[in-house]
Amino acid sequence: MGRNGDRVEVLPGPAGREDRAAALQSTFGVQANAIMRKNFVFQKRSWANNLCLLLTPVLLCALLGILQALINILLDGDSFKCGCKCIEFSASDPTDCLRRDKNICGLEYSDVDQAVYCPITSPAEWPALLQVPLPEYRAEAPGLPVGCQASGSCPLAVPFTGGNPSLAYDLSAHLFQPSPAPLVLSDVNTALASQYPGTAAPSSGTLQYELAFQNRYALYFLQNDTCPANVTQLLALGQAAAAPIYSSFGISNPQNWTCSPAVTLWNSNVASINEQLFVGYRGGNPERTISEYTAAYDWRNTSTSNFVVGVHYNSTYQNNTSDAPPSIMRIARQINLAAQAFLRWQRPGASLPLLFVKDMPKPGTRLRLDFSSLLGPLFYMWVWQMLYPVLLASLVYEKEKNLRTMMRMHGLTDLPYWIVMYTWFLVLSVAYMIIFMVVGSAIQLKFFLLNDYGIQIIFYFVFLNNQVAWTFLTATIFSKTKTATVCGYLYVFGSGLLGQFLLRFFLEDPTFNGSGIFFLEWIPCFALYRGLYEFAQAAFIGNYQDESGMKWSDLSDSQNGLVTALLILLIEWAVFLLLGFYFDQVVSSGSGVKKPWLFCLGKRGTPAPKEAGRRASAEVGVDMERPDVAAERAAVAQLKDGTGGNVIVCKNLNKVFPSRDGNPPKVAVKSLALAVPRGECFGMLGPNGAGKTTSINMMVGFLQPSAGTALIEGLDIRTDMTKIYSVMGVCPQHDLLWESLSGREHLLFYGRLKNLRGPALQAAVERSLRSVNLYAGGVGDKRAGQYSGGMKRRLSVAISLIGDPLVVYMDEPSTGLDPASRNNLWQVVKDAKKDRAIILTTHSMEEAEVLCDRLGIFVDGQFQCIGNPKELTSRYGGSYVFSVTTAPQEMAAVGELVHSLSPGARRVYAVSGTQRFELPTDEVDLAKVFAAVERAKGRLQIQAWGIANTTLEDVFVKISKEAQLGERTLS
Fold first, then answer.
1. What is the phi/psi pair of residue 313, to 5°?
2. 460 and 399, same structural domain?
3. How high is the pLDDT of residue 69?
4. Average pLDDT by consecutive 10-residue portion of the chain (971 residues)?
5. Given this model, what pLDDT does residue 9 score?
6. Do 383 and 60 form a contact (C-beta atoms < 8 A)?
7. Which end of the chain is less packed: N or C, by CB atoms within 10 Å?
8. What share of the chain is helix, strand, coil (3-state, %, to 5)?
C-alpha cells in the first residue's frame, strides 16, 4: 500500500500475485464506504421520488387540517352550543348584537338540541317512568282479545314466573295495585310517585330533560283494572299539573295523558320469557308480528324471609345503536314496582314511593370533535405503513436486475450491504416520522398534541425498525419488483381494514378472550394497530374531557395494551432481522448461489449432486472425445489438488437443470475440464444454447454446479466464493447497470470495492473511461440510462477490468459495437490479458482469432475441440476452398477441371458463373492447381479465381454440425 493509502503496483511473480490478491481484498469499512457513496448518489438522483414520499404525510395532514377546520366551523353554529339572548343591540341594526359579552345564555333560551350544552347547576327532578310499547306494537298474548294489536287496544302485558307459582301470582297481583294515598296536586313528582306512569318516548343519554314531557309523546298510567279516581282527577288537571315542567321548555300544548290497563301473564320458565321479549326487541324475528312487552319479572326463590327478583326490561326504545352514545335505561321504576309489590304482600296498605330521578349538575359544554382521532388508528396505520412497499420495491429491484449479484461478484459482502441499506431505510423512516409528527402537531391534530411525545417517539421508532426488518425478511420471497409492489400495497391496505373491522371489535368486546388478542398482535400490523388504537382512544377522551391523552402513568394500567404491543414489536424486530439474513442466504428467489440450510451451524459446501448430474457426467467417455479435449482433461486430472500455476481450473464441472412441466432434466454442461494460465485469453465458441454462459455463471457464482468444481487462484467456487469475488472481474452477457448512475460513478463504486482509493482510484477511472471511448465529450458523466447499447457494453467491459482483477470473465463483450469501437475494445482486452487470465465467449470468429490464445468449440454442453486458431483450422479444416468466376455457360467445364485436379472435390456454392469447391488437402498439389488454371485460361474465360485454407468459421460450422448430428471424426 502507498503512504497515503493508495494501492501500489506489484510485480507479477508468485509472491507478487499473492500481494496483488491481498491488495484486492477490501475490508468491511472500504465496502461500506463504497456502497454508502453509491447509495448517496443514487438517492440524490432519485430526489423527486424521495421528496414525494416525505411529502405524503404533509399532504395527508393538510387534508385532515382542512377537514378539521370545516368541522370546527360547523360546530361553532348555534345548534351545537347553549342558546343565548342578546340584551344590547346596535342602534343602526336592531338584529345585530352590539357586543358578544352582552349575550346572556341559559337553558331558558335554548331548544332541546341546545339544552345539552347549557350549564345546569340544579338539574330538574323528573318522575320515574316505565318504558312501555306503543299501542300498535303491544303484544297480543294468549288470553287477550283477538285482533287487539291491529286496533291498538291491547293492554300492557307483563310476563312473570317464579320458583313458587302461587307466591309469584300473589306478588304479581300487587305490581299495579292502586295507591289509596290522596294526590298532592301541588307537587307533580309526589303526585306521580304514588302512581305507575309510563311512556313510549325513547330514552336519552342524560336526565337533564325528559322526552316524555314533550307534546308529541303520550303519558300512560298503568293500573290493574279501572282507572282510579285519584288518577282520573290527575288526568283532568294534567295540563295545569305539568305546567312547571312545560315552562322549562316553553311548551304550552297539553300532551295526551291516559290510563292503560296492565295484565300479568304466567310463564312456566325464564326461557319462555326471554323468547317473548326477543321477538319484540327492535322487530325481533321479521317473519313474526312485533310483540312488545312492558317488562317481565322472575320472582325466583322469593319467600317471606327472602326477596330475590330478576327484572327483564324492554330496551326497544333505548337509543343503544353502536354509533350513538349510551342511553339511560328506564329500570328504576321497574325495580321500585317489584320492591313495593313485595312490601304490600307482606304488609297490606304499605307504600314505597319513588319520588323522582335527576341528573348530576353539569357545567356548560361545547361539542368538540377531533376528526383525526375520530378516524381512529386506520388512517394512521395506512400512513405509517406507506413506506413498506417503497422500501420493499427498492430491495427487490436490485435483486431482479441482478445488481446485487453483480456487486457480490466484484467483492461486496453481505454484512456491509445489509448495514448500509438498513441505515438508509431507517434514516428515511425517521425523517418520515419527524415530518409526520411535526406537521400533524402544527395543524393541531389532537392525536399528536394530547399524547405524550416521549411515548409516541419511542413507539414509532420501535415500529419503524420493526418495519425495516420486516421489509428485509419479506424481500427474500419476491423476485419481481412489480409483484412486490402490488403485494406490499395490498398488505398495507388489507392489514388496515382487518385491524379496523376485526381486531377493533375484539378489543372492544369485553367477552373476547384476551389471549386471542395477544396472539393476533404477533402479526406486525396488528401490533401497530393496537398501539395506535390506544393513542386514538386516549386522544379522543382527553379532547372531550379537556385533559391530556396518553401519559407515562397510563402505561401501568392493565387495560392499556400499548406496552404489550411495544414489547412484541421489539422482539419481532430482532427475530425478523435474523430470519431475513438467514433466508437471504439460503433462499434462491433471485440470482446467485444459495447456501446450505444449516450453513449457520458451520456446514460448508454444496449439497450432494443429483443423480441426473452424475449420469450426465458418466455420459462423456474418453473414447468419445477428440485427442485435444482428452489431453486437456488429462492435464487437469494431473493437477490433483493443486492448480499447477493456472489461474482457472475447472474439474468435471456439470450443470443439470431439473425437470419442469413434464420435460426431462436439461443437461446444460457435461464434465467441463479446463485449465487457463495467467496471461492467456481462452475463448469459448459455440452456438446459442450450447452452455457457454451457464459455464461462466457457475464460475462466477451466479449458478450452483450440479457436480464437479472449479478453482480460481486455488480457491474453490463451492466454499470460497466470497474470497474469489475480490480477485474477479465480470462482464455479463446482459448489462447490469443502475440507470440513474453515470459511467464514472459506476467505475468509482466498483473501483472502491477493489480497494482503490484516492488518486489511484481517480487515475484508474480516468484510464478506464479513455480506454473504452467514454471520456470525450463528457460521456462518462452522463447517466447510464442515456447510453446506447454499445456504450453500455463498453462500460460493462471497463467495470470488469477496473482494479486489475486476477481473473476476468467476458460474456460476448463486443455485442452491439460498431467496427471502430470493436477494434478499440479488442486492443483494451489485448492489453489487459498480459498479467491475468481471461475467459471470453463470442460468436465473432474474427474476434476469437484476434483476442484468444486458445479456443474451445463448445457444443451440447461439452468441448468438441481445443487449441489455438491456427491449430484448429489446420487440424479440423482438412480442405482447401477453391473459388472461380467464369461465364455461366462454362460452369460445367470448370467442374470437370476441378475434378481432374481432385476427384474428391465437392461444390458448395454456384451462382451466375461463380463457384466454390472444397478440395481435400491430401488430394491437391498447389503447384499443379496453379499450372492447370494457367492452361485453362486459354480456353475458358476465367475472370477471377483463388484458393485458400479453411477459415475458423468453416471449422466452427463443421464441428457444430457433426456434434449435433452425433458424427464424431477422431483425428
1. -105, 160
2. yes
3. 81
4. 39 49 74 89 86 86 82 80 75 57 74 78 84 86 81 88 93 83 67 83 74 73 74 62 52 64 90 84 61 90 91 74 61 91 89 86 76 77 92 91 86 89 93 91 85 94 95 91 93 91 83 83 90 88 77 86 93 93 74 66 51 42 71 87 83 88 85 92 90 89 87 87 87 90 93 90 92 88 91 93 91 88 89 89 89 91 88 78 88 89 85 86 83 87 84 81 60 39
5. 38
6. yes
7. C
8. 50, 15, 35
d(CA 696, CA 686): 13
Query: What is the rounded distance in angstroms from the CA atom of residue 449 to the CA atom of residue 534?
Result: 14
Q: Tell me which residue has cell 499473492.
A: 18
- Rounded to whole angstroms, the Cα distance separating 670 from 787 reads 38
Residue 388 within a domain: yes
Rounded Cα distance between 755 and 25, Å, is: 7
Q: What is the pLDDT of residue 452?
A: 92
- CA end-to-end distance (rounded Å), the chain: 52
Sign of CA dihedral 323, 325, 326, 328: negative
Residue 82's nearest CA partner among 126, 113, 45 is 113
CB 578 within 8 A of CB 465: no
The residue among 302, 330, 346 that closes a domain is: 346
User: Residue 918: which of 861, 958, 968, 966 has the closest Cα?
Assistant: 958
Q: Which residues pair with 120 in a beta bridge?
A: 362
Residues 6+ apart with CB under 8 A from 660: none
400 found inside a domain: yes
Measured CA to CA, the distance from residue 89 to residue 443 in angstroms comes to 36
DSSP string, 99-163: -GGGEEE-GGG--HHHHTTS-BSSPPPB---EE---GGGB---TTSPTTHHHHT-PPEEEEEE-S
CB-based burial label for 944 (10 Å; 0-12, 13-18, 19+) = exposed
Which triple of cell numbers denotes residue 506? 375484539
Q: Where are the alpha helices (DSSP H) in 223-328?
A: 229-236, 238-241, 243-249, 270-280
Residue pair 528/558 in contact by the 8 Å Cβ criterion: no
Distance in angstroms (rounded) separating the CA atoms of residues 697 and 601: 27
* Cβ proximity of 954 and 912 under 8 Å: no
Answer yes or no: do 241 and 316 share one domain: yes
Contact status, residue 636 vs residue 650, Cβ threshold 8 Å: yes
Range of the domain at 395: 371-586
Q: 299, 171 in Cβ contact below 8 A?
A: yes
Question: How far is Cα 414 from Cα 600, in angstroms, rounded to an integer?
Answer: 14
Contact (CB, 8 A) for 753 and 32 = no
Q: Are residues 397 and 324 in the same domain?
A: no
Q: Where are the alpha helices (DSSP H) in 552-664?
A: 562-586, 611-618, 627-639
Q: Are 109 and 155 in the same domain?
A: no
Give backbone dihedrals phi and psi of 866, rounded to 5 degrees, phi first. Answer: -140, 135
Cell 485469453: give the residue: 681
Question: Comparing C-alpha atoms, which of 587, 608, 611 is closest to residue 597?
Answer: 587
What secondary structure does DSSP assign to 23-55, as a single string? HH---HHHHHHHHHHHHHHHHHHTHHHHHHHHH
Q: Are residues 148 and 277 in the same domain?
A: yes
**Total-model pTM:** 0.69
**Is residue 265 located within the same domain as residue 226?**
yes
The x, y and z cell numbers of residue 724, run together, are 474469489
Can you give 874-911 as a three-state secondary structure string?
HHHCCEEEEEEECCHHHHHHHHHHHHHHCCCCEEEEEE
User: Could you tell me the three cell numbers for 744?
Assistant: 464514472
Burial pattern 727-753, b for ≥16 Cβ within 10 A else e, equals: bbbbbbbebbbbeebbbbbbbbbbbbb
510: CB partners within 8 A, 6+ apart = none
